[in-house]
Amino acid sequence: MKKLICTLAALALCGVAALAQDVIGKWKLEDGSAIVEVYKNGDNYNGKIVWLAEPNDAEGNPLKDLANPDPKLRSRQVLGLNMLEGLVKEGDKYVKGNIYDPGSGKTYFCNMKVNGDVLKVTGSLDKKGLIGRKMDWYRVKE
After folding, report:
1. What is the pTM of this model?
2. Which CATH number characterizes residue 132's domain?
3. How many CB atoms neighbour CB 63 within 10 A?
């Protein structure tokens, strides 16, 4: 009986550890400007902006995607915008996706890795991640 209880306890702890490494959930950008909710869609992981520290422009209107290179998309709101798309899980990493920066209107290659409550995000000009920027996003606990 003791063996059974110990085994069940060990399995429960493994489940908690695995859950803690899951990318699905809400993540606050390192500068505190936004929260992105990462979700799974089929085999891909995407992320949308669900909170902004400053959601409105100077006139009090919702922020728009004004820097977008496509004029047709400049009227869409930044809040609710998908900024992560197409990431796939490979081992303990999420790779081969794209990250969109609404501030600059540029899209970059993206790779991510969960390290506890920190999401290590790399946006780069090349698929290998050699030329780019690394950011830490922090898990939002609800």
Report:
1. 0.83
2. 2.40.128.520
3. 17
